[in-house]
Amino acid sequence: MSNTLTLALSKGRIFEETLPLLRAAGIAVLEDPETSRKLILTTNQPHLRVVLVRASDVPTYVAHGGADLGVAGRDVLHEQALAQGGAHGLYQPLDLQIARCRMSVATRADFDYAGAVKQGSRLRVATKYTEIARQHFADKGVHVDLIKLYGSMELAPLTGLADAIVDLVSTGGTLRANKLVEVERIMDISSRLVVNQAALKLKRALLRPLIDAFAAAAGQAPTP
Ligand code: ATP
Ligand code: MG
Prior knowledge:
Elements: E1 5-9, H1 13-24, E2 40-42, E3 48-52, H2 58-63, E4 69-73, H3 74-84, E5 90-108, H4 113-118, E6 123-127, H5 130-140, E7 144-148, H6 155-159, E8 164-169, H7 173-177, E9 180-196, H8 197-202, H9 204-217
Parallel strand pairs: 1-3, 1-4, 6-7, 6-8
Antiparallel strand pairs: 2-3, 4-9, 5-8, 5-9
Residues 10, 12-14, 54-56, 73, 75-76, 99-101, 168, 170, 189, 191 line the site of adenosine-5'-triphosphate.
């Protein structure tokens, strides 16, 4: 639809933290994803709709034109770029500075991580982010067996499935509740605006003001 923009968001943090940026641009989403089961949400702007997708599906929707733009975490973007050898067809004009957290290594409190690294032990690491973890430990020269999980990473060290996990941490509350400790920070995470490159040319008149409004709301200089 050439006269309509589709914005891909994921439910939860990213949706909640994108709302104020939209509001600052005069955009209101007219349905609440927590109470509605709709996956396509209307806004007060006739030419803008929001689609709700899994966080890790946002780059796919935007890259393939299922959405013109979207908001995705650096965790998801970096993991997929490492897996695919580049971010295909995605223009990333802005760091929105929302959904901030960090990617860290955590272990049980009684696991001697520094000692294991120093001794050159082989570590079993459970994570959803296998590419980021692979790169991190390769850079450190630590040998790892990676175990791919899709959720509840904290459980892995507690059940003996793994020595360590690589996961997102914000307050550390979930780690503490499970008696895990953060032993290494890998990278700071925040969410980015991602834009379909073809849409940027074909729908420039609709997209440009929206990108500029996101930039202003996020307190950033407009991009060229
Ligand atoms: P799915 O539900 O599709 O499996 P998910 O559970 O990873 O994905 P969320 O937990 O909502 O989805 O996370 C979505 C995005 O929000 C992540 O990709 C990350 O960028 C950000 N995020 C995740 N955890 C935190 C956190 N603790 N603090 C701040 N931002 C976070
Ligand atoms: Mg989730």
